[in-house]
Amino acid sequence: MTAQFDRYREAAKRRIAAQQAFLAVTKTYREDIQRDGRKITIDLLEGFFDETYGKSDRVKAEAQRAKELIEDFHKAAEDITQSVAMMVLELQTALSTLPTKALAPFFEEMGKPLAPKGNTPLDVARAGMENLSDAGQKLLDGGHQAAIEAHGLELRAEETLYQATILLELRKKHLSEFRQENLSVTLDDLKQRATKEGKDAVAEGLRKELAEILAEVVALTVEEVAQIKRAHKLGRLFQRLMGKKQVNRQRNDTDQLMDLVGLLEKENALLGKLDAVFKETAEAMKQVLESA
């Protein structure tokens, strides 16, 4: 039984490490959302695409659908966090009461009245030893089975925590790529594009235009830079600099929006499955108390 408890303790250590990694990723994910603001993504979907491609029914419908999926994702993330907390609480409760549950059969056997076969002191002692032996065996069997079940639960918890961590890492990556492709416009980008496009007299015109754009960019306040207004203003300034080339990209923003919607749908489905696994794990931990 000692070996089984050792395996259980090792699994518990791995589960705790996985839990800490999951919580760390959750924290950084929320910081990303708070830093960029959920409003950036939603305003981008509702406003930026409309400015670029007009307020078509297709864009409006996809933007609304993406907005709802984003809200659903945040709710699912909260549900998973609560499920993880419940799972850990149930595990702690199981661990704290496991020794008592495992020892219960032993004390029950010890409390039974002796039924000696004879009247001699030797018969009385023999019956007492038999009761003690039975109680000890039940203690070993119960503790061993409880350790096996707890070990299995720890392995399940570790696996689901790692799945949740990987999913959130992918979610952060998708959001980062989406922001970079649609929101990130830096002064270096403007300079590089102006230099690349600028030749001879055209270059001089681009430099003047760039100077005007940079002046307007510098005038933006810190708050404006942190909000969606930055993406809108820089997007319009960008169009002045690039002309029709931005509109003629092979992959337009509407297609990117539909890709984002598809990713959100897949991630929400995975989150739902993970949440169900967490709840099943928490329920199984309750059963440990009953079976130990």
From TrEMBL:
Domain of life: Bacteria
Protein name: Uncharacterized protein
Classification of source organism: Bacteria, Pseudomonadati, Pseudomonadota, Alphaproteobacteria, Rhodobacterales
